[in-house]
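Case study B.
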Amino acid sequence: MSINNQADQSRRKFLGNSAAVVAGVTIAPGILLHTPAQARSLDQAASSKQRWGILIDTNQCDSGCDKCVTACQTENGWGKNETKSNSEQQAQWIRKVELKDPNTGHQQSLPVMCQHCENPPCVDVCPTGASMKRDDGIVLVDKHICIGCRYCMMACPYKARSFIHEELKGQATVAPRGKGTVESCTMCVQRVDAGGSPACVEACPGKNGKAMVFGDLNDANSEIAKRLKQYGGKQIRADLGLNPSVRYQGI
Amino acid sequence: MSIRRVVAGLPLIMAGLLALPLSTHAGDAPQVAKGKGDACVEPTDVIRKNHMDLLKHQRDDTLRRGIRTKKHSLNECLECHVQPDESGKVARIDSPKHFCSTCHTYAAVKLDCFECHSDLPKSMNKSAYKHKLTPDNKHHASMQSAPVSRQMLDAIANGEAK
Amino acid sequence: MKKPILREVNESMGFYALLGVFGALILVALGAVYFMEHNGHHVTGMNNQIVWGMPHVFALFLIVAASGALNVASIASVFGRYQYKPLAPLSTVLAAALLLGGLMVLVLDLGRPDRLIVAMTYYNFKSIFAWNIILYNGFLAILVVYLWTQLDPTMVKYGKIAGFAAFIWRLVLTTGTGSIFGFLVARQGYDAAIMAPMFIIMSFAFGLAVFMLVMFAAYKWTNRPLGDGIVRRLKNLLGVFVGAVLYFSLVFHLTNLYATEHHGVEAFILRDGGIFTNLYWWGHFVIGGLLPLFLLYCRKTRDSRTLIGLASLLIILGGIAQLYVIIVGGQAYPLDMFPGMEVSSSFADGVVNNYSPSLAETLLGLGGFAVAMLLVTVVARALRMLPESLADDVVDPHHSKADA
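Model:
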């Protein structure tokens, strides 16, 4: 079953890539989408023509600000209904990390969440295929078939995943989550599918302009692609070759 | 009686046995909460027999492929079937009056949807914070057709209402 | 040469006492499972940083030991040492029992053990974990056939091939178990190909240690003769395996010490890690390594059954300590996401992670041992699998000549 799926996916990926190449050649660049995410029709599947990504400019990120975190909690309903778990057991889909260079004293602040790798280790190690990557690059947990083995949490280099340690009530409709399964940032897939951008990006005030940009990495005319081309962007742990969709400037 | 005759008669016996529970239990079948609309998205016998397959198909399409058609979505079931009763109370999943629990309790089939999914439709679920329900914010069609007070919604979200 | 006769054990008081003790331990473990599953994992010491804890230490010990418990049978069938043949059934049954005990612990610690069927029906073949599910089930199937060839005279002719299959399979199985950690590129404490062979050699030592204890107990409690010849051979083998475990452990850390990027994690395990450092040096190295080696080889202690049994027990304790250091210690050391930077966050970035195992987790782990031992006890009663005598002249007709 899973073999078929994987074969299917690589075939789809291949077709998708070739389609993207063909499109790029035959259609004038101006005709490609400008807006980060135009809503697909409801019956249309996510496609590998898009690869959703987030660019985070740490120079714009204020160390005292955690609006991205609270926006994520509000949207996806975590951070309030785990009452029995201790602080080390409570889920965190996105967190603010403070960095300090011991040599220079330079300090930075940045949000870290699921990096939505192109080659996600969590997907590789998952025994049932519950850890999965959508065609548009969003990495998700299929909680319907997650058995709660936590191997993905062992494998993730970003500590992006959390395990639910107790029975939950009051989940958000858009983000089902429950005891005994693993979860992580979904890049607000419900908003992306409706043509919007993730709650964290929307909420980010930045210092002098937004610190977070969301968009299609495959679309050369998207703001994120243009910015990345002009200013570059780093991957956390690029040495692992995972090619994450979340990129950082200033680290 | 030859063995062949017994074999030939088997379908008849089976049919008789199958008909038995239908006839005897028809009287005390569970009273399912009626939906809001006129008819279900599928004929009643189809949805009764196959709702789990339809939901499962939808869940894989939605989660794994991003297809978000509403016809067979769990939330749409709830939008239609989870409604306040005459006294304005909304049954939660742990009450046998909840649309899903009614039959599942009766048939003793464990439900595994609401371990993770909200048992309230999106329009009533306060956990979806975006929907700030103020008197002048009535963008939900369903809210208008089924008047629900703000206090009640808060009570629901706090788990006070049963 | 007298032909060794296999006979079931009697229903003595001791037999029922064993059933009672192991049964009680299993009941306690199941109670612990109910407690953990009903409440969720928040009642355990595990959290989002230490995701695998005590249950995994015990489960992996049992699974690794299961592979090694088959040593004796393998030596008989694969390497043609007929002296060990009478013990092959005990070795095979013990392997299966330990594996079942370990798997029970592993499965009952899942977040959703009720979805075991999902693990059996949805496979991601890129996952070493999924492969292990197949390897474990396959091993059990092979062991059943292998046991059949040992006990049914009409099947004896297939014994060689079954033994060979079981031998290859268990090497692959332990490779798979070691690779659970070897394949984790993200974590400093893992990501090493040496994990696979190290787990194989650990399996040899732990499995044989468990086997020795079970054999001693079985022969003492049934008043059957057990000759010094076979004990001496097995304890020498055990010593070699223990030495090899120490060797692999040293090479693993020496290799890491050469690379500057690994200095942090090595300093943590070997010097600054508190409980992990203590468990590594005192638990794994001294109690599980040097001390048993001394007991097994020193002229004054090597002939004492009690002290050989003690050495086996120490090897088991040291093995559990070693796995605790590998599994929990590897997670306790912070992930290095931003090399060279000081890191802090609300999600334990940059700090050593805490883990204090709860009683329930530990009871579940011990329950795995109890399941394994209960199975062995029951099978020893149900099947004619234990030789009536392992006296030297029964085991080896050349015994007197060889030792003269």
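The longest helix of chain C spans residues 228-258. The remaining cases will be described in the next quarterly update.
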